[in-house]
Design brief:
It comes from Hoeflea ulvae. Belongs to the TspO/BZRP family. InterPro entries: TspO/MBR-related_sf, TspO_MBR. Pfam families: TspO_MBR. This is Tryptophan-rich sensory protein. The chain is mainly alpha-helical. The chain has one domain: TspO/MBR protein (Ferritin, Up-down Bundle), CATH 1.20.1260. It has six helices and no strands.
Amino acid sequence: MNKSHAVTLLLFVALTVAGGSLIGYFSIPGPWYQGLEKPSFNPPNWIFGPVWTTLYVLVGIAGARAFIKERGNWLPKIWFVQMALNFAWSPVFFVLHRPDLALVVLIAMLIAIMAFIATAWSRDRPAALLFLPYAAWVSFAGVLNAAIWWLNRV
């Protein structure tokens, strides 16, 4: 790996983790979220920070690989779309108090994640593989989001 690629990798990972952390900081679940009815499979709150940090590192590495290998093609564009959707979910859910709209954002994000995996699969298999745990977690988050919406609809 040359110096330019190493800098790109560090920037992607740092900006992805920092962006996710900032969004989390400004979208801290408060009393509204605490008062919601949650499904029995809702994980404890402490699990989300470590899981998302780990996933953001993997997503950042995949994004750097896509940017380095496929700059100007669809793969990095798909990466940026899924990242924008990822960063939009927390404010929609926790700030706007809209689990219904957040579910729509999450479904669009999952479609973008799957598009990234499908596009990367033949071009950059390691980047595609780095997205598999992310796709699994976002799928689980979608089920959780849907359950919370269903249990609390009025």
